Amino acid sequence: MAEENRIMSMPQTLGGHRRPFSALLAAHIVKKPRYESEAVLHEAAVKLISRHQNLSDLLLEASRTPSGPTENVGLAQQDVCLGSLTPPETGTWATPLSGPGGSLIVHALQRQAVELGVPVGEVSAKLVAEKLRGLMGCSEAHGRRLPLNSTQRAELSVLVQSAQELLSHRAFSPSAFCRELWKALENPLLEVVWHFHLGRILTVEYILESEEGAESWLVTELRSLCGGTTEEQGQKEDKEVQKQILTGVVSVLVRAAFQKPQDPGSAQRNISQQCCFVLDDMLSCVLDSLHKTQDQQAGTVIAECWVQVLDSMSCDVTMSDDVLGCFFTHSLTYILTYRPQFKVSHAIAMQSEWCFAKTSRLLTALYRKLSILLSMEKLLSHLQQVLETDEVNWQHVLSFLSTLLVYYPQAQRSLIELLSRLLSSAFEGYDLENMITSFLLARQGALEGPAVFPSYSEWFKMSFGSASGYHGNSKKSIVFLLKFLSDLVPFDPPQYLKVHILYPPYVPVKHRTLLQEYVSLAKTRLADLKVSVDGMGLYEDLSGAAAPVQCQAKQDVDKAVSLFESTGKISTAVMEASIFRRPYFLSRFLPVLLTPRALPAKPDIRMAFIESLRKAEKIPSALYSNYIQACQRERERHRPEERGVVEVSADRQPLERLQDELQDLRHLLLTPGAEEVSAQLARISEALTVLVPEGVDEPLRQTIMEFHVDPPTTSDLENKVINSVLVGFCQIFMDASKINPPNSRQGPWASHFVAMLLGHKKLLMSLLHRLKDLLCNQGASLSAAHILGLAVFFVHLHQCRAICPLVLSDSTPCSEALAAALPCSTGADMSFCLRFCVAAVCYALCRSDSSPDRVHDYVPSSLCKKLLYLVSRLLPGTRTVLEGGGVQSADEGTQEEKEAGRGMWRNITDPLASWKSSVVALWRQPCFLALQTLPDYQLSFAEWVKAELRVQRSTDILSDPERQEYQQWVCQQQYLSVPLNQGGCAGDIRQACSHIFHAIMEFYTCTQTVQTTRCGPPEADSCLPDIVSRLQELVYELEMNRAFRRDEEDQRSFILDVISEKCSVTSESLAVSSELELQQTMHIWSRVVVALPPTVLLSVRSLGDKRRLDLRAFAEHINQRHRNVCVPAGRLPYDITAHFLKGVLTVSLRCDHPSQAVNKLLSRMHQQCPLLLVSVGVWWSRLCPVLLSLWTRLSGGPLPESLQRVADCCAWACSAVKGEVVPPPAVPALLLAACLHHAGKGQRKQCSTRRTLEQLGQLQEQHGLFPVFLLFFWVTDLLSTFLQLQKEDAEPAREHCMEILGYLCDTADWLLLFHPPGPEQGWYNTLAEVTTDGTTRLMPLAFYSLVPKLDTQVLGKMLKVPGFLLTALHSYSALTRLFLDGQTPLPDSSSEQADPLQILSQAKQFLLRTISLSPQTHFSENSSQLKDACGDLDPEVSSAVSSRLSQHDFSEEPDFL
Question: Which of 953, 971, 969, 987 is nearest to 878 (CA)?
Fold first, then answer.
């Protein structure tokens, strides 16, 4: 003791004098007492400790290693911060510490325990707890619980080590320590407890089991850690420690709660339940924090922390998948059933607010983390199980479903299968719960857009729209469905009610009243909601069911105007609406249609539609008058500078949000994450919905649109939105392509982006029109980046063609219509179109990894054809590739093709590379060559001709010689020898000529249609002359081959085959529009034919050793088609007649005796084609010099005898009309009558009529049919004046007819003219082939226009002619049918022509008088024919005839009359 006191007081005795260190050390060594043994030394130490009883401080000293306290603290801190936080396995303990310090403390504690009479473990536990209390004093200063600092953590680590040493010597009681800890620290820090848990001293499970209120304490501590209290200090180290503690504690809880114990018992079950309670309480805290509105930032921190914990646990390799899966499934169930505050009625009404875009991002992240270990089938099966067994929180259920659909593409198929099971189960057991569930889930899926799930209308139609639906098997099922829908009516939003009305479920006719009751109920509910039932629109396929009424009316007006433009008639829907939906028609439709505007100088199609409605008395006169006045005022104050921005700045914020969302997507793609991209697209869709409000439901596959010549007017806001979307897409794609090529590594974001846009129907129509305007009108001004971006957008638009709108004209996807609309008429258009097509095809090849089986999913066939047309035209070097190349096998060099496709894309995006090199590289790419083998992707010869005809020569990129060389190469080398199945002609020149002829006729038709609405002839600057030249070259080659083949049997001319295909409709069924179309077609055909060699119109046929001209094909064409389009009727146009006769003279040289061949042909002409013979006589004065000159050049002799007789006939006719008596030539009477009629039309009637009649008397004996034929021609003229409203020509024709009828009144020959054509008419059937069918139908009108006006004396003679009464009856019946069918011509208001109704009335009076005055013998001889002729058309006429027929029975009584 004296030595100890001396050592301790040494600094004071020194008095400030210092000695060297070596001296002090020597003195210390010399004075150190020596102990005999270790036991003695131990005993001395125990005595020393017993006299200095500060065991608490010794706890921090005993476990320190010789390395010193500073180093030990650092190592301890490192162990806490960076060491594994995995809790110990049950039954394992730390290795006891070595050294004398630990044993000294143990002996001291044992000695103290003996003195106190308590176990040593309790003494040590109390000692450790008191030390912890002192250690934690600074952390609880000022009533605040602060985290441990680095010094405290180091001391705590040493304390834990000391406790481990005591435990290893069985001198420490964990249970006593737990009690003492809760006494010393009422609510200890979780970090302190976690250190003792890691030291295998006091586990979290034991605390939960032994301490009352431990669950609440643990939840509070976990919340504190999740709340991020260390944010205030901003120490990154503290945050990392807290995160590891939180993750470790949760892992312990998860294992204890969900790991299957080896020896299950009640205690283990209690621990599991307690841990599960803590986890559930934490999850409740997370969910509550997400729904708080006061402290949203704090709630976000808690939720983010919990999501990070789940993420860390997913990556923990020590956690088994079974345990983690059970925990995730339990948590998911807890979320879905947490606080089920919403009823089903609330869910139905509020469902649209719970879509993915409006759900908290942290909640969707939580759903994703909990779904990561389960397959989609198991997730939806579990969802179904929860829905069937528990009361659920519908907001969580539906937002969870939306998250699955957005992040996981396979969820759509699984959901459709789940809905099918639910509906099947619902109708099997008439289960209302399953019905409600299926409808809510289907509607929730539809909220996410067509890229995620079909629309509600599509699902509803697929499920209930046909007899094969889930409800169609019995009346009970139908009643169940309609009862369910009726129960939903008070809660259903308007858009769903409209879907049920527009697309009602299938109900058999006998149960249709049930459906009508529901429809009435739904309409009543819509009326209560002040939603107009009439606002549903006239056309189901134009807009969403939830579109505003004014928007719906605007869409209806646009649709009605477009249909009127295409058909020329007011659509049936408009007419029905004006009657059955008059409130909508008057209050919605007409105000939108009659919106005041500055009317154009030339009426447009909208004005024509309004005028048609006005004439149909569908527009009130006052409303129309106000509209005209308002339009005039609008035109007066209309100024170009007044056109400005319409939208207010209030819309600026949503537009900025859209742009921010697009930028976020751009950043996401620079750090790829497919799931996050899908979520971002959903947010972009929501931003678009805010800017351009869209209905909840849109009919996808039935949407019809039409591309207008002038794009529809859109608001300034819509233009900004569309431009932002397109520019954003281009920028995003260009940035994404800098990192990854556009193959599978770039992900499906682009296709999902386009599919998302397709769900916004109101915006989509304007966007597609904007895209068409950019591609078709502004292509030359687009930059390379814009061309690439739009090409990619276009490719994915085609990829989504299944849900794209169809174009009204031909029901093709809009991508095909856009590709077909790409202009190629000018050099600038061709250059842009080539660049655009190359970019699109290169992207498609790269996207599909050059797989021929996938390329066609990305490339529209129209786009590929445009590319095939342009490349060989603009790049002559590629023509040799076609000639010497050939399509390689699609199986050759698959990997090389992929690399080649990527190389092409790099070449496209390289600013230093030229487009020409890119085109050549693409042109030689094997996959592109393989694509051309597909039938739909081959550019046929006919398509090439149509494209070439649209080129404007003045702005063509090729010069005239270059264009001629190119066209000749295409016709002669590229297509002539190519097989038919590849779009070629298979070496057949006739086939090539037919294709060109068809294309020219279609071009003429299209240009004449455009010419009616635009000024100037569109074909004036086209390549039509060049194509006609190519046709002439081919035809001349064909004719040369025919001329030198003496053994040929000439085939039918190809030009007749073309016109036969064009005019396939028979004349009996022609409507007015079809007749006009036939006239236009024949006019175009004639224009093209006269530009070709005349030899194409007829052929040579061999009869034995002789060859003669064959007229049959051309005669058939004239008799069946051309005859009906002649104006005036009864003669062919001069150009066709002259061209035919030129061909006759030229082709006759192929016969042995040309003159005889011509004579024989003309001799057969009056039987085979009388109209052609009549036309020769009519046009002879103009034909004669032409034919004489041609025949002189061909043979050197006089004209053939038959043609000379035609000249003699014309000369005779000229003499006859002058009053000269000349013997007629020996020609058919028909030709005589035609020539005389033509000559008489050129003379003044006063000088020629009497002389002509005198000649008729002299010629009747030799030519008995001649007067009848002449009457026919004058009657035809009279009917032509009726049809063409030419009153100045009607009177001369009528007077000629009256004179001839007066001459023929004693004969019955002329009566056959007014009978319908038939075998009994004999030679008069020939006349039916001279005039048109329309003229023949009007012959009864001519009969009653002429005969009743004859003199009484002439009529008396006609009544005695047998057959006159029968002809009068036939004509009256036919005239009545014409009147009833509306086929009688209407008189001009300025002419003196009688009205058809007046003629019919006069005809009836004349017929009744004729019946009464006709001889009785006429009734006795033709009684059966007279009865048949009466028919059922007029009872009064039938009664009169029957009365005269009954008089015949009593004719033997002379005094009866």
Answer: 969
